[in-house]
Specification:
The protein has about 325 residues and is mainly beta. About 5% of the residues lie in helices and about 50% in strands. The chain has 1 helix and 28 strands. The strands form 8 sheets. It has a 4-stranded antiparallel β-sheet with strand order 5-4-3-26. It has a 4-stranded antiparallel β-sheet with strand order 6-7-8-9, with no helix packed on it. The longest helix is centred in the first third of the chain and has 13 residues. The chain is globular, with a radius of gyration of 18 Å.
Length: about 325
């Protein structure tokens, strides 16, 4: 599998000018052929990290480790590494990185806490993640260097309060995240040094899984027991705008494309037996399923491949 993924990446990294129409997209919509979405799905009784192009071409199983649970992929801006959380039997999740060819696995955390949801900063120098102590009922945001050193807290730990799903601002100066403090989760913003904490949404609904892009912060919202929809809000605040409202279909966990033209997200239809991965290109268009089969696709992260030193990232 490593050799097949490497061969695919060599091909797409060489196609730096080719554009591929996205099936079902609006007329004139295009997506760079060298873009790849990472996500996790069940595999051999556990979970692995998989890669797929935005037009639905499977790339392969990146981690292929039946003895571990691999979740929450996040591409480094350079494309050299993918961060993810791995849990071994009888242990907690730890943050690892791996090359997009499936080689050079590195463990970054071994704290004894449960570490999940890594998010690479735009500069590639820092990784934000969620650290929790489930038995004590809290989770908080942390950052560390891309090598796993200089670990620092962004938010404090308090019983009954859960911080999750960090996403960096495009300029790397702040992060948005979801916080639940005894009620429905809402979106909050904090500066990269831990200062300036402020609440962004407070509508009495469940707001989660934010992704910060140039056009704003896209997230999923669930109100009154209905299905989740995608919404967008300005980083400065204001009234969120509903992007989707498909009857009977849940649309959640969005992630901006590298250039901000599209959104990858999850979609679930009652009776489908699982969660599918969909792409909206442009982001104002209807979604097109690119990874289906009722396999519970989760946690999309969209990246554009490139070249460094003449070699694919």
């Amino acid at each position: 599998m490593v050799s097949s993924i490497r061969s695919f990446l060599l091909v797409v990294a060489a196609i730096t000018t080719s554009l591929t129409p996205l099936p079902g997209a609006a007329a004139g919509a295009v997506v760079p052929a060298e873009e790849v979405v990472a996500f996790h799905r069940p595999s051999a009784g556990s979970r692995d990290i998989f890669l797929v192009t935005p037009d639905g071409l499977p790339v392969g199983n990146l981690t292929a480790s039946p003895s571990t649970r691999d979740v929450d992929p996040s591409w480094a801006p350079s494309g050299h590494r993918i961060a993810f959380a791995r849990r071994r039997p009888g242990s907690v999740h730890e943050i690892h990185t791996i090359a997009p060819t499936g080689e050079s696995l590195r463990r970054l955390t071994a704290s004894g806490f449960d570490d999940r949801e890594p998010a690479w900063s735009p500069s590639g120098e820092r990784i934000a993640f969620v650290r929790s102590r489930p038995a004590r009922g809290w989770s908080r945001l942390m950052t560390m260097s891309s090598a796993g050193s200089t670990v620092a807290s962004l938010t404090s730990a308090r019983r009954g309060r859960f911080d999750a799903s960090p996403s960096w601002s495009p300029d790397g100066t702040a992060l948005v995240f979801a916080r639940s403090d005894g009620g429905f989760p809402s979106l909050w913003v904090v500066q990269a040094d831990g200062s300036g904490l402020r609440r962004l949404t407070s509508e009495g609904c469940s707001d989660a899984n934010p992704s910060w892009g140039a056009a704003g912060i896209v997230f999923d919202r669930t109100c009154g027991g209905g299905a989740a929809d995608l919404w967008i809000v300005d980083a400065a605040g204001g009234s969120p705008l509903n992007l989707t409202s498909t009857p009977g279909v849940a649309e959640l966990d969005p992630d901006w494309s590298p250039g901000g033209e599209g959104i990858a997200h999850l979609t679930q239809t009652p009776g489908s037996g699982g969660v599918d991965l969909a792409v909206r290109m442009p982001w104002t268009s209807p979604g097109t399923v690119v990874a289906a089969g009722g396999a519970s696709e989760v946690g999309p992260d969209w990246h554009r491949l490139g070249r460094v030193g003449g070699r694919p990232c």
